[in-house]
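WARN retry 2 of 3 for item q-0093 after timeout on previous attempt; input resubmitted unchanged.
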Amino acid sequence: MALKKITVKASRGYDILIGGGLLDNAAEHMKRAVKAKNFAVITDDHVAPLYGDKLADSLKSAGFSVCQKVFPHGEASKSSYTLNAIYDFLSENSVTRSDCVLALGGGVVGDIAGFAAATYQRGIDYIQIPTSLLAQVDSSVGGKTAIDLPSGKNLVGAFWQPRLVLIDTNTLDTLPEEFFIDGLGEVIKYGMIKSKSLFELLERHDSLGIRGVLEDVIYECVSIKAAVVEADEFDSGERMLLNFGHTLGHAIEKMTNYTGISHGRAISVGMRMITKAAENSALTAKGLTNRLTACLERYGLNAEVAFTPYELAKAALNDKKRMGEMIHIIVCKDAGKSEVIKMSTNEFILLLS
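OK item q-0093 returned
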């Protein structure tokens, strides 16, 4: 695949590079993005053995110095405990505001490393190097960084745009199938909210067949995300559309203590539930729930949860999208057409009941 580039024109502009083998010459791309001579790599114990040395070797061969922090993989690590350990690591290695953090890994790594960069010494540069499908199509782009609290997901965070996003599609070759499937939950979300053609493409394939067009799919998702971020960087309007399925999905993750179900599967349940409720209330096209359900099932995203929609609606009231007694929900009127609807918390509970 030829190298593809998307430029995000946000408060701090940056490039997103997409292509196979980008880690092999990562240093060359980073030279053009930042002036740092020292890099602090933040990664987890799944990714470090696969790509930690490759990235460090590329940087060291170009004359940079590198230190690396590895923490346990999984959503449970996206906590204040891990964040403080990262702060200590940065301080102990004399990382300064002229240096750069490299987030090497999936969504958890990108979120917490980005938040550490946003807050350490009041903000230092960082670069996203996503290695999971979910991170490549969604969480690495847009500058949302955060950690979880016991009371909810991503409740402490900051908007902090990266200096570069380096998407090496070859890293997906080592991604376990369950995590690949998980990322497809976010891909289906993009089709539902913004791209009828992408959704129809997904309807025609399955998890094996989609790999043949995967690079184009990643480019389409990232292009959508970049355009939305440019239009609404700080999540006060159009960017809320990216949360389709997430209000209920985050509630599911919280109610299972971030260990019972993966993010992609949780938001898949959330997308299905909110679409069914919207269709029952004539807010969306007839038959869309069946189309969405069938598409999710094609990719093994047909997880069930023990919680009722009512229970999830109650749990979701601690979501960031709640404002006083009002909450913003995202519904799809049809495939590729979405909107933000503001309603009272009581109306939201009734909608899901």
